[in-house]
Amino acid sequence: MKGKAFKFGDNISTDHIVPGRLAHLRSNLPELAKHVLEDADPTFAARVKEGDFVVGGNNFGLGSSREHAPLVIKMAGVSAVLAKSVARIFFRNAINRGLPVLICDTDKINDGDELEVDLKEGTIIDITNGNRLTFNKIPAAMLSILDEGGLMPYIKKNGDFKM
Amino acid sequence: MGKTLAEKILSLKSNTDVRAGDIVISPVDLAFVQDTTGPLTVREFLNNGFEKPANPAKTVLFIDHAAPSPNNQLSTDHITLRDFAEKTGCVLSDAGDGVCHQLVAENIAAPGDVIVGADSHTVTAGGTGAFATGMGSSDVAVAMALGKTWFRVPETIRVVCSGKFQKHVYAKDLILHLIGLIGADGATYKALEFAGETVDNMPIADRLTIANMAVEAGAKVGLFPSDETTRNYLKAQGREDKYQPLTADSDADYERTVNIDVSELEPTVSKPHTVDNTALAKDLKGTKIQQVAIGTCTNGRIEDFEIAASILKGKKRHPATRLLITPASRTILKQMIKKGYAETLLDAGAMILPPGCGSCLGLHQGVLGDNEACLSTANRNFKGRMGNPNSFIYLASPATAAATAITGQITDPREVL
Ligand code: SF4
């Protein structure tokens, strides 16, 4: 996976990603996706391109259980979320939607850097500054879901939890 | 080696012997959604070929976040939920009944239960000794369909509370203090388990307030033991048969222990825009507040309105400060009326909103204007949470909120009494 890094700070909450004031758009996802991360960076939705990366700091995705948060990040074309740490429900929701979340030292990545991620190798190459980062292994149970493209495809295939 | 509460409940429920780090498939005693997460759950459920929930009677759809609905889109989402309930026989809790977490505590949760809800504050039911946790719409759709879900058994941080609260210091101050201490990610993934003499003497309302905010430290669950207090709570609801005693084993393995002497606590406030950004109320004197909101699943219980009414009795809100009161359930609203708290609060200049989430998540009722500040008894003060990213939210106890409503600036309740 190759794309540009969009860097955000610590504690990017699900309210930054899809605020409650837009709850009326939750059954109109293409419209909601136009507002993705609006309260963290109002220009993000217009600038992000297919394949780009959202790069957070600590505790990315804290707050509510709204699955719409990883869903609209994925709809915006983002291929993975990179963060120093991630909130529990967001992590599970992202994997359930087939959006990889990679835990790594994002201090080494600058806004706008070109990144190349190898999911199988577990590496991130920052093409812009030449840094090579590794990310924590995604837990096996979650990897089995991610490998199927998300929770629903996983359940459809297996008919049950097989872990 | 003994077990923590989380290990114990998940072992009992799954009929296996599990420890922190294990993956467990567990039956769920309750799966629920609310009106901002439920429509996606329903679509995922139906679009993936599921027809009926495994246990319709243990599947509840709550309409509480936009209750009553402020616009046509949310009204249509409500129809989605009502239609699904009608077709599948699962339970509908409609607008006006109250906030999901309060209703779960009032009517459904029991010690030892495993509860999943498509709402992060599902952790609230930990106050009754249930392993209750928030998940996304897809996870809950699958839990509804199969009647089970998967968990990684969490490591546990034990919070041992000793001493007696000073006057006008409450459970809310304790949980805000704890989150300030360990940070908004201090318990990420972990279970928080509360114990100690203070907890032994703590009413369920306070346990619910504390468990409710476990997720604000990142925790998967906030667990309380089940004891005589729990039994009496269930008994008052006519559900004593659901009681079972539950405590952690004395030789359980904890990741760490945090000790808090509650007698040293003072009225505490979370400042914008993170819950762990705490300070003492007395040090924030002079901070002007345009709106005070008392209610939500954190502090919208009758005990909270009793405190607020006792402070506001015979007083008026500051003319520059609006006062919003949102009971967490219809039962609580009726009690407020019966006990005279509603009249006291109305006389003080309050608006009483219908039972539900009210102004908490910024989709209607009490959205803040630019640069306005609200002091709320809710659980979250993220940027934009109350509908405007150019506004400021402070979190505090009902007592601090009532005192602040009188003076129009953040006020330590001990100063107005
Ligand atoms: S009262 Fe607030 S925190 Fe509680 S369920 Fe409603 S929106 Fe969520």
Features:
heterodimer; A: 163 residues; alpha/beta; Aconitase, domain 4; 7-stranded mixed sheet; 7 strands; globular; B: 417 residues; Aconitase, domain 3; 5-stranded parallel sheet; binds iron/sulfur cluster
Per DSSP, the total helix count of chain A is: 7
Helix content of chain B: 25-40%
Distance between the termini of chain B: 50 Å
How is the main sheet of chain B built?
A: 5 strands, parallel
Question: What would you give as the CATH superfamily of the largest domain in chain B?
Answer: Aconitase, domain 3
Fraction in beta strands of chain B: 15-25%
Shape category of chain B? globular
Q: Largest interface: which pair?
A: A-B, 41 and 57 residues
CATH topology of chain A: Aconitase, domain 4
Distance between the termini of chain A: 27 Å
Helicity of chain A, as a percent range: 25-40%
**So, the CATH homologous superfamily of chain A?**
Aconitase, domain 4
CATH secondary-structure class of the largest domain in chain B: Alpha Beta
What string, H for helix and E for strand, traces the elements of chain A in order? EHHHEHEHEEEEHH
Question: Strand order of the main beta sheet of chain A, please?
Answer: 4-3-2-1-5-6-7
